[in-house]
Hints:
Largest sheet: 9 strands, mixed
CATH class of the largest domain: Alpha Beta
CATH topology of the largest domain: D-amino Acid Aminotransferase, Chain A, domain 2
Number of strands: 16
Bound molecules: pyridoxal-5'-phosphate
Strand content: 25-35%
Amino acid sequence: DGFIWLDGEMVPWREARVHVLTHTLHYGMGVFEGVRAYETADGPAIFRLQEHTDRLFRSAHIMQMKIPFTKEQVNQAQVDVVRENKLPHAYLRPMAFYGSEGMGLRASNLQVHLVVAAWEWPAYMSPEALELGIKVRTSSYTRHHVNIAMCKAKANGNYINSMLSLSEALSGGADEALLLDPEGYVAEGSGENIFIVRDGVIYTPDLTSCLDGITRKTLFTLAADQGYEVREKRITRDEVYIADEAFFTGTAAEITPIRELDGRIIGEGRRGPVTEKLQAIYFDLVRGKVPQ
Ligand code: PLP
């Protein structure tokens, strides 16, 4: 129940439907965002709203999809959906997709639609993941900056690799996948950026082969405020094996410790002190307990 914002209108949840000939369903070209609203003393607050909207438009630009709304309208749609559904906290999903106006690969006769849905989604991985850390497995699928939808776009096509990676990880007894780039360097998780900590310094892959994560960027600021140095560099998978700590960042995953990669225990095999500290500050920030 509740409402979904679809092409400028609040539509009852069950009526927000598309036709079976929806173009994006057939060819997979679409762009989306994953956004969160947190419960704060002043009601629900959407964390980094403008950044998510900006990235949605950048993704659309890469995919040559023209979103028929302004950024202000897209921001407002997200605020309205949370309010209309009276959600204290929420996961939001804006998505631009091609409708059923045309088939075939020629984009000129296609119309771009925009939907914003929101629902309560408290724990993305598991309730224990944030505290105990997760087991990760390196994927046989890679993250590409040159083909599929290119990694700077949060585009539907990229999630085929993410889903195949995750499924491979889960069937191998792990909780999440780590994707490498075509050269074998660490890229990112199926839906998260990765960080490692070694001798008090925090490292993360540069943006060549991973999504420009909004949580990743937030972490840079938080870490700097705490006096940690964050370096962007190419990371190999064995550097993760011998790290003191490792963690994923993402809107859904928040800051999730990694306790094991490919059967190698990382550090003490549990959430490390740097991860724990950054996590605590992150939660204070998103819940409005410290100024943004
Ligand atoms: N990498 C991928 C492939 C993702 O899908 C996401 C999730 O949005 C991230 C990284 C993390 O990005 P953000 O922190 O903006 O949610």
